[in-house]
Amino acid sequence: MQPGNQQLHGGEMRYLGDHRRQTHSRIVENASYGLRQNGAEALSVVELMKLAGLTHGGFYNHFDSRAALVGEAIAFAMDQTVERWKKLANGKANEDRFKALIADYLSSRHRDNPRQGCALPSLAADVARSGPSERRALASRLEQMIDILVQMIPAQDSHQARKIATGAVATMVGSIVLSRAVGAGQLSDSILDAGRMAADGRFHKRQRRTAKATTCDKP
Question: What is the full per-residue pLDDT of the chain (219 aa) written as tens digits?
Fold first, then answer.
């Protein structure tokens, strides 16, 4: 084979590899939107591939199983939430970070847009009944979300700060689940208000305790 043909072959291989990665990413991204909108068990392989504008024939060129795609789609969705939280926190003081995050998460915008929202309210219940790969994907990203909140809680006791952060995430997720379940309206808005109050209260309760302890330690 002549050198020119070898170079052409190498270029074709690079193109095919790039194209495959782009297609894989497109399938995962569109699946994440579809699953958040419809639930982890609602869409078949055919329907998931159709979301990316593809037929199901090439599915196993990218994934070993439907569960593998669902796991990647969950990770993609939760990575989006983590990045959004980081942007919201950027340049703000700890207290303002926490408030901004809570206000954004427990908003009518998030409640009314599950397709592009956090995966936890949409998929956690389904994932609990799914296989280990989906649960691992959700758990690893949940840990990252908790880590971000821990950094916003100025506490000497890191274990206690983690408990507060975990409780705040649980409160926020539960509030979105219930606010969606009852439909948009006064009750739904009240659930969001109560969730904001409860999640924000966890932060300020810890701050008051820390301030009190600091005052008592002074000579």
Answer: 445 444 446 666 565 568 889 999 999 999 999 999 999 888 999 999 999 999 988 899 999 999 999 999 999 999 999 999 999 999 888 778 889 999 999 999 999 999 999 999 999 999 999 889 899 999 999 999 999 999 888 766 888 889 999 999 999 999 999 999 999 899 999 999 999 999 988 666 555 554 454 444 555
Q: Residue 151: helix, strand or coil by DSSP? A: coil
d(CA 111, CA 99): 17
Alpha helices in 1-157 (DSSP H): 3-38, 45-51, 66-89, 94-105, 108-111, 119-128, 132-150
Distance CA 194, CA 93 (A): 24
Contact at 8 Å (CB) between 73 and 28? yes
Q: By the 8 A CB rule, do 170 and 155 touch? A: no
The rounded distance, in Å, linking the Cα atoms of 63 and 69 is 6
Phi, psi dihedral angles at 107 (to 5 degrees): -120, 160
- Which residue, chain included where needed, has tokens 């966890």? 202
CA nearest 32: which of 18, 46, 43? 43
